């Protein structure tokens, strides 16, 4: 299917991002997978070449263009190359809007130039050991003391958790008020009492640092409150649709890549004296998967346009997230089957795709929570 989403300037951007991946990521990614984390230099190089903060204002070193198509290109090309260690999508797609929409002028001057240059790597910490889907149940607490907030609690599964220089922490600042008692506090590297725990050993995304974080009497200056006190939950709800679409963008790209590699494989691999692609079952499976991939692509591209127009609803994003990621997981499983025993070998890209994909239906809100969001909007009771 011919995509109609992009203009010539996007194609140029894609080409230069591909070059960046070939030069600075491809030679290092296997090493990063072994060490469980990417080297910081790749962030600096990405910043130098304009791949961080494309939507941030130019005065802070950003690209000055609010157009999610650039974010989509970064995500798509990273997925296509299986460079799953890069935390750029979290930085550009998830964190950027928090900082550009909620930070005051003084905060922007402190954080945005480093965000765009790659000197400040970012993370967001919502999930806790005791609560993930039920965000309202978080226990991390901040109490005001003079000009500071005193922060206590722990977070887990935090992407960029080890490399991050600033972390947007969701904390209870007024427990009496329930969901209206949350605030966002920006915790910076080196603040006393802020510790990083384990870099977690995951099934996939091996080069991505996903960590536990703990906060013991961390004095966070009041000047690091992001957005409005007590509005943290609302700020989260406003930003989650873009995060979810970003995950759907990765799903669509992964489906295309895995379908392509499987078509290639079944053309080459022979059984019973002929290519396995000539069996009717193979043709039917791949015909189904090609149809589903196209359907996901149409939906995702349409929702990127809607996001750019400010029209992507919470429900739309939930639909894109659960459906594309479930389709991705199913497609990769069936493509792996067509690879036979080789599909189970880590040296084959389909095996890596399989391991990297599984989390897609979980993070950013699980499939079940997405269906709850959509179901609620149908006003069934
Ligand atoms: C690799 C990775 C990276 C991550 N990165 C981040 C990050 O950067 N920042 C961050 O804050 N978090 C991050 N997360 C956390 C992620 O968002 C949570 O894991 C996710 O929201 C699910 O929460 P949970 O793990 O506590 O599962 P639970 O909430 O315990 O859910 C367990 C199961 O119960 C189901 N369930 C829960 N409630 C309901 C319900 N009401 N109805 C039906 N079913 C329900 C869920 O769908 C799921 O199947 C990451 C997770 C992973 C694995």
UniProtKB/TrEMBL annotation:
Domain Acyl-CoA dehydrogenase/oxidase N-terminal: 8-119
UniProt-recorded Gene Ontology molecular function terms: acyl-CoA dehydrogenase activity; flavin adenine dinucleotide binding
Domain of life: Bacteria
Domain Acyl-CoA dehydrogenase/oxidase C-terminal as annotated: residue spans: 230-378
Acyl-CoA oxidase/dehydrogenase middle domain sequence ranges: 123-218
Family: Belongs to the acyl-CoA dehydrogenase family.
Protein's recorded name: Acyl-CoA dehydrogenase
Record lineage: Bacteria, Bacillati, Actinomycetota, Actinomycetes, Mycobacteriales
């Amino acid at each position: 299917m011919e995509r109609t989403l992009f203009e010539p300037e996007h194609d140029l951007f894609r080409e230069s991002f591909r070059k960046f991946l070939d030069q600075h990521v491809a030679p290092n990614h296997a090493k990063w997978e072994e060490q469980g984390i990417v080297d910081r230099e790749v962030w600096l190089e990405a910043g130098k070449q304009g791949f961080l903060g494309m939507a941030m204002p130019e005065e802070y070193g950003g690209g000055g263009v609010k157009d999610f198509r650039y974010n989509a290109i970064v995500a798509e090309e990273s997925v296509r190359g299986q460079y799953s260690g890069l935390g750029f999508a979290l930085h550009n797609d998830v964190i950027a809007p928090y900082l550009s929409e909620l930070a005051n002028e003084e905060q922007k001057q402190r954080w945005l130039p480093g965000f765009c240059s790659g000197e400040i790597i970012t993370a967001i910490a919502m999930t806790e050991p005791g609560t993930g889907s039920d965000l309202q149940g978080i226990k991390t607490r901040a109490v005001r003391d003079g000009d500071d907030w005193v922060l206590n609690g722990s977070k887990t599964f935090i992407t960029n958790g080890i490399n991050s220089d600033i972390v947007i922490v969701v904390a209870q600042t007024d427990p009496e008020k329930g969901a209206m008692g949350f605030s966002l506090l920006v915790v910076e590297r080196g603040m006393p009492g802020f510790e990083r725990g384990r870099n977690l050993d995951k099934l996939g995304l091996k080069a991505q640092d996903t960590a536990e974080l703990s906060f013991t009497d961390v004095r966070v200056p009041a000047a690091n409150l992001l957005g409005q006190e007590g509005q943290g939950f609302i700020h989260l709800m406003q930003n989650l649709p873009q995060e979810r679409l970003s995950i759907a963008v990765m799903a669509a790209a992964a489906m295309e890549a895995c379908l392509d590699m499987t078509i290639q494989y079944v053309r080459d691999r022979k059984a019973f004296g002929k290519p396995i692609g000539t069996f009717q079952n193979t043709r039917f499976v791949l015909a189904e998967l090609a149809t589903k991939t196209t359907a996901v692509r149409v939906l995702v591209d349409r929702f990127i346009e809607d996001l750019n127009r400010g029209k992507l609803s919470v429900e739309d994003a939930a639909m894109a997230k659960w459906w594309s990621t479930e389709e991705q997981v199913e497609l990769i499983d069936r493509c792996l089957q067509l690879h036979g025993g080789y599909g189970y070998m880590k040296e084959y890209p389909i095996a890596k795709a399989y391991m990297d994909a599984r989390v897609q239906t979980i993070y950013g809100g699980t499939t079940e929570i997405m269906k709850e969001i959509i179901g609620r909007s149908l006003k069934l009771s």
